[in-house]
Amino acid sequence: MSASTEIIGSFADDQLCARGITDLRAAQVKDFHVFSPIPSHHIEHAMGKPKSKVRLFVLIGGITGILTALAITIGTSMEWNLVAGGKPIISWPPFIIICFELMILFGGLSSVTSFLVNAGLPAFDSASGFQSRFGEDRFGVVVECDKADDAALEKIELILRNAGAEEVSREAA
Q1: Domains of the chain
Q2: Which of 5, 94, 119, 132 is buried deepest, with most CB atoms within 10 A?
Q3: 160 and 7 in contact (C-beta within 8 Å)?
């Protein structure tokens, strides 16, 4: 197993960082991490990230809540039917409130759960190459490379510098 080196590029602007990511992807570099102090659509677009799946999980949770509410209310009404004034045993108006409440409950629980799963939380290992300034005012791109391949290291450093990186450094991984 060969040793690896991390090349860390620091950017002042998210558009410059996105340009660096685009250039890295164009050079077929696949093993990199991005750190950002703020959410940036430029960076997400440059990384080629698909839209979040959280809304799909919320939809599924809401539909499950409605179906659960209907099963509970209709099942309860059929099990303990009480005919009052000739009204039907299964009546939709009172069931709508319970359907709405369980739709909100299941949708909310599924949104929190899917957010945590999609975000990879909790993260038990620290991200390699992270520097505290990446959480304050700088954008960072960390590329992991094979230490023995000097040509690739130089190529990646040049790509990051040409994209507008303020600082490019090497660290042993």
Answers
A1: 4-51+123-172 (3.30.70), 54-119 (no CATH)
A2: 5
A3: yes
